[in-house]
Amino acid sequence: MNDDVKCDHDGNLTIQNHVLKSFDIVPNSFLDMQQMIESNKVKVRLYNIQSDTLHKDDKVELEITNFVKNDVFLVVFGGWIPCTFIKRRTILLADRNVVTEITSRYEGGVKKCSKTLDSFDSIFLQNKSVSIDISAFVIEANERKIPTNNMIDQQVANVKESLKRALPSLEICTYPGGNSYYHNLKDGLESVMKNRMTFLQEVMPKLNKQFTEKSRKEAVNIVFEAAKKIQLCKSDIVIILALLRITMAGKKTAAQLVLKDSQIYTEDKAYNAVCDLSAIELLFNLHNFHEKKKSCYNIALITKDKGLSLFSSLFSNTEISGSNEDNLQVNAKILYPVFGDDNDLLNTYEKWLKCEY
């Protein structure tokens, strides 16, 4: 990261000689993430700045360069942000690969190797205003299947011990009811996760190829017929993921990386994919909860998974349009042409959303 952009232990951001005690940041897009992955450069836009040296109405726009290659991503509601620009009082929803990285990289609050500090270290060694939520880790599990309550209890105990050994001062989020919070979370997700896995195992062997205009139409029908048979919610994110597998051009697209598609589509692959989707939904729900409570906490999904990050960053102009005790309705736009340049497909999708089973 540029030497003139730093974050201190209290979460204050310093840009050149300006100390930003608080700020809001415009989430970056899919195209921004592609640029950062390819060039290590990214644009940043800050507003609502509180600083002794800047006016409250000032906006800051800059382009930064990562001198150490970025391999960790912060997904937020409406896009993503560079790690150095993490806001104070951020709850990090950490997936399994991040938890594993923490426990293997640190011991007693110190980095085990002598390599140059990178963006990951800037969060966990140089910023004491963050806390970690292990919900996504608990659901993903080490067994690559929906965990039992006993498995959850064992995992929670083990991961808390490992995290404390690695970073003793890192705050781990706790919830009323202790482990029953994770039991209830698993129970709430289990049915939809199983349906999504069944859907993916049925359609993915038929989608593991490049598509022509004709074969794309046939593939879209395969997706809709499978979703109808399994009775998925018409706007289910797994349907969007499958459609993007058909429409996104190129090798190793965001959809392919999330799906890890192959002719033999195993239950493990399906479970990994639906865990990624559940992590995105957990992010949305936590964001909505803290927004409604006006808790002043910020929520970010932290992951080393490039596919998950790219897929999440496709959704922009995100807003909560409704909620009840069981469901959260989220509206988002996919502005990039990967989904929006095929009018026939868009018309077909609109008809799909309006029709009844």
Question: How would you sum up this structure, described in words?
Answer:
This protein is an alpha+beta fold and about 350 residues long. It contains 13 helices and 16 strands. It has helices at about 30-40, 95-105, 120-125, 135-140, 150-165, 180-205, 215-230, 235-245, 255-260, 265-295, 305-315, 335-340, 345-355, and strands at about 5, 15, 20, 20-25, 40-50, 60-65, 75, 80, 90-95, 105, 110, 130-135, 170, 300-305, 315-325, 330-335. A six-stranded mixed beta sheet has the order 8-7-14-9-12-13. A three-stranded antiparallel beta sheet has the order 1-2-3, with no helix packed on it. The longest helix has 28 residues, at about 180-205. The radius of gyration is 21 Å and the shape is globular.
Number of helices: 13
Low-confidence stretches: none
Largest sheet: 6 strands, mixed
Shape: globular
Please tally the β strands and state the result: 16
* CA-CA gap between termini: 52 Å
State the secondary-structure class.
alpha+beta
Rg from alpha-carbon coordinates: 21 Å
Q: Give the SSE string.
A: EEEEHEEEEEHEEHEHHEHHHHHEHEEHH
Helix content: 40-55%
What fraction of residues sit in β-strands?
Answer: 15-25%
